[in-house]
UniProtKB/TrEMBL annotation:
Pfam families: Phosphodiest
The protein's name: Alkaline phosphatase family protein
Highest taxon listed in the record's lineage: Bacteria
Amino acid sequence: MDLPTPLNRPHLAQVVPSVLAALGAREFPETLGIQPVAGACVLLVDGLGWELLDTYAADAPVLAGLSRSPLQVGYPATTVAGLAAIGTGVASGEHGMAGYTFEVPGAGVLNALRWCAHPGGPDLRERARPEDVQPLPTTFERATEAGITATVVSEAQFRRSALTRAVQRGGRYVGVYALGDLAASVLDVLTETPGFCYAYHSQLDQVGHLYGPGTTAWRMQLRQVDRLVESIVDALPPGRLLAVVADHGMVTIEDTLDLDATPGLLDGVRTLAGEARARHVYAEDGATGDVLAAWRAEMGDRAWVATREEAIAAGWFGPKVSDTVRPRIGDVVAAARGGFGMVRRTAEPIESGLIGQHGSLTTAEQLVPLALAYGR
C-alpha cells in the first residue's frame, strides 16, 4: 500500500507568522496573503473541518460566507499538535508534540492534554517539564520580543495547565467561561490594545466526540460557533482582522479493532500511544520487523502502517524531524483510513467509546478553514 504524502496546501503552522507579519513584524514570513492590519485575532475552533463546514454551511452562514481557503494541519491531526503548530509556527516534527499521547524518553508515555503518565498515571510536570518537552520559543514570546502585544483568550481552567506552558507561554492569559465573555474579551483586546490575540473554543470538538460530527447536536453547536463569529465580526474595529482556523476535522467511527484484545498484535510491543485514528507502536529491541508485519497483516486496507523512517520520509511530520523528536514517534506508525478506529477498550475505556474521532491523514481530518474578516 502506497503511503500518503502531505497535501498541496498551506500548513496551519503558517497562520500566526503570517498574521504577525501583517502586523508589521518583519522577522516573520507572510505566506498566506493576509493584508496589513493594526490588530488581529486568530480564533481556533477545535474540530471545525473544512469538509464539515462545507457540508453544513447552512448552519454557519456567517462563517461560511467569509473569504476562506483550506489549510492542512499535518500529522497527527489532533488538538495537541494543532495548538503547538499555532504556538510555535512549525510542524510536529520540530515542535515535538507528536500526538494526544506519545513516549518521552526517560518519562514514559505522556498524555499531553492532561500532562500525566498514560493511561491514568501520575502527573509528569516534574519528570517532563513542559518547557523541556517543547523548548522552542513560542510565537507569543517572539511576538512580544517584536513589540507586539500578545494575548491568549481561552478557558479559565487552562490558565496554568502544562500544555499552556508548553505551547502558549509568553502571552498574557485572559481566562473565559462561555461564548459571551470569549467574544467580549477578543473585542476588548482588539479595541483597547491593538496587537495579536489568540482565542480558543473547544466545545464543537467535545460535542463531535460524544455524538458524532454532523449529528443534530453537533449542528446546533456549529450554529453557536457561527453566532460567536458573527458577534466578533459585527463589532470588529476598522483595521483589525479576525482569522478563524481549526486544529483538525473529524470522522464518525463505523468499525473498530480492540488492540488490547487482538491475539498476536501486541507481541514484541513495548508500549502503545497515540489515539484511535493515529497510533504510535513502540517495539521491543529487535522486534520492529515482526511488529510491522503483524500490524500490516491485521490492519489490511483499514490503515496505513509504516515504520518510523517511512513515515518521516513520506513527510507525515513535516519537512524536518529533529533528533529530539524522532524517538517520540513510534517504531511503527498506524494511521486509520475510512471510518476505522484502533481502540483500547481496557486501557482507554472513555476514549474508545467516542463516536467522533480524528488524528489521521484523510482529507476530512487534515483540511481546516482559514476564514478571514477585516474590520471596515
